[in-house]
């Protein structure tokens, strides 16, 4: 991956996480693949696992239709949930490939051509990957064979991928989540016993340090991790379908718990981001099956709730909604009926949510 290539329209990078959409593989509504979203240069970019297990990329300047499409990789290349992030001066994508392989794709700018690298071979990857930049490296976390947690990194400007084992067999159920917090790479994971675990590694170090955030039986969903202010923040949907928010000030050991939403309110794994100066969370909500959005202003302990979309506007299995920041705008993706993907956005100074259709029948949500 050569980060010294010329770049067009890549000036500002935002936070990324994963969102699921209805599967378009084989024309059926089978277990969902996913649609990650991030922001680049004031616009939004979305990666979709498409028909025939292709990998498709959509981009748009906020509030300026239409969406532009590029194909990243052809049929039979993409399984599970792809992830997208801005790394150095590049747009990058990680995806689980056929036979449990792991692939990495990069492009120096919009419509400048996608390049492929094999990160790990057959039988190595058993979850959707999580992708971000930590320090001066592209990093990926995924579940490995036997429920292990594996970390891959590549220094900017080089082409070699390095592998590290974060945790051994029977350590993770589902996909881990990775972020940079302070001067460390951090990973959050759900254990097979439904506990919430946290692993951190100081930049430049090789040691991974484990911590137990929440006891066994806490969650059956994948967690989401990011930095909020001067703290690590982890969000989970509990076994009672409530949403819990755990935070730990950088450099300290106690984890603190806040209840974001009560029992029987969440039907999916949540996502978390920072929008403006607020922490923001999105998840598929009950009973209306639309997206629930929660935000907490910096310095406050109060969580504020909003509903996004109408009754039944969001469908699909867990991991159905994703919130990120694009400039001063909150954006959320959701899987809609008829194998569609809808994009919601709200300026940080406003209360109204706007909806656009990215993929699927019809031009409107």
Tell me what you see in this structure.
This protein has 365 residues and is mainly beta. The chain is built from no helices and 30 strands. The chain has a 4-stranded antiparallel sheet with strand order 3-4-5-6, with no helix packed on it. β9 and β10 form a beta hairpin.
- Specify the CATH architecture: 7 Propeller
Mean pLDDT: 86
Task: Give the overall shape, derived from the CA principal axes.
Answer: globular
Strand content: over 45%
SSE run: EEEEEEEEEEEEEEEEEEEEEEEEEEEEEE
Helical run tally: 0
For the largest beta-sheet, the strand count, sense and barrel status come to: 4 strands, antiparallel
Distance between the termini: 38 Å
The counted number of beta strands is 30
- Give the CATH level 1 class: Mainly Beta
Q: How much is the radius of gyration in Å?
A: 19 Å
Strand order of the largest sheet: 3-4-5-6
- Give me the secondary-structure category: mainly beta
Report helical residue fraction.
under 10%
Give the total of domains. 1
By CATH, the superfamily comes out as Prolyl oligopeptidase, N-terminal domain
- Poorly predicted tracts of residues: 2-35
Q: What is the third-level CATH name, the topology? A: Methylamine Dehydrogenase, Chain H
Index terms:
365 residues, mainly beta, Methylamine Dehydrogenase, Chain H, 4-stranded antiparallel sheet, 30 strands, 51% strand, disordered N terminus
């Amino acid at each position: 991956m050569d980060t010294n290539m010329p770049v067009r329209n890549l000036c500002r990078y935002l936070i990324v996480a994963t969102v699921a959409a209805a599967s378009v593989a084989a024309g059926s509504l089978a277990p969902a693949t996913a649609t990650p979203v991030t922001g680049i240069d004031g616009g939004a970019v979305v990666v979709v696992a498409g028909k025939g297990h292709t990998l498709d990329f959509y981009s748009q300047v906020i509030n300026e239709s239409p969406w532009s499409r590029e194909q990243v990789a052809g049929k039979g290349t993409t399984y599970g949930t792809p992830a997208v992030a801005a790394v150095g001066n590049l747009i990058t994508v990680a995806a689980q490939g056929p036979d449990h392989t792991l692939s990495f794709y990069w492009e120096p700018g919009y419509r400048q051509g996608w390049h492929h690298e094999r990160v790990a071979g057959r039988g190595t990857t058993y979850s959707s990957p999580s992708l971000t930049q930590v320090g001066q490296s592209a990093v990926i976390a995924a579940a490995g064979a036997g429920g292990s947690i594996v970390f891959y990194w590549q220094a900017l400007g080089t082409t070699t991928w390095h592998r590290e084992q974060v945790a051994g067999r029977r350590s993770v159920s589902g996909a881990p989540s990775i972020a940079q917090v302070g001067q460390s790479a951090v990973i959050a994971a759900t254990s097979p016993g439904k506990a919430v675990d946290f692993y951190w590694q100081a930049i430049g170090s090789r040691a991974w340090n484990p911590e137990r955030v929440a006891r066994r039986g806490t969650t059956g969903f994948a967690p989401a991790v990011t930095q909020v202010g001067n703290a690590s923040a982890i969000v989970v949907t509990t076994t009672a379908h409530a949403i819990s928010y755990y935070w730990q000030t950088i450099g300290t050991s106690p984890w603190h718990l806040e209840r974001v939403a009560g029992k029987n309110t969440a039907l999916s794994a949540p996502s978390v981001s920072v929008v403006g100066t607020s922490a923001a969370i999105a998840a598929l909500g009950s009973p209306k099956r639309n997206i629930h959005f929660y935000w907490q202003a910096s310095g406050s302990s109060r969580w504020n709730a909003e509903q996004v979309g109408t009754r039944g506007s969001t469908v699909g299995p867990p991991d159905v909604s994703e919130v990120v920041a694009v400039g001063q705008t909150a954006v959320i993706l959701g899987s809609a009926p008829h194998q569609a993907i809808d994009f919601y956005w709200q300026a940080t100074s406003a209360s109204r949510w706007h909806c656009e259709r990215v993929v699927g029948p019809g031009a409107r949500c």
